[in-house]
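Q:
Got a chain?
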Amino acid sequence: MTTLEAQLRPGQTTRQPGPSPFPRVLVHVGLDRANTARLDFAATFAERFGSAVTGAYLMPALIPSAVAVGDVLPELIIEQEKLAQADAEKAKRAFLNHTTRKGLRAEWHILRGPVVSRVRHLARLADIAIVG
């Protein structure tokens, strides 16, 4: 059994003594079916190790392709933006529900555009990343 496995005993809810081996946890927050399980795991992990949790939501790009610009009405783009913002707000509420319920330190990010470099940056700042 590894040290980490020993520290993650099933049913254990108390924080490990001493400084956290994982002070910063990054979790990918989404609206997919696995999101609740990811958030539960991240919150439980952070609680056990005294970690701060960073939530990252990947907002879809809404800029239409150059080929479709002539066919896309500005009203449609505005409506898509409203729906995307509503989805981001749902994801944020789910994240804050999990983190505040356990009294965790939390930070929230909405990533848009070329998200790979931004996710990579957040992952480098974290000690563990939980992604879907």
User: Anything to note?
Assistant: The two ends are 26 Å apart (CA to CA). Residues 1-6 have pLDDT under 50 and may be disordered. Strands lie at 24-29, 52-58, 106-111, 128-130.
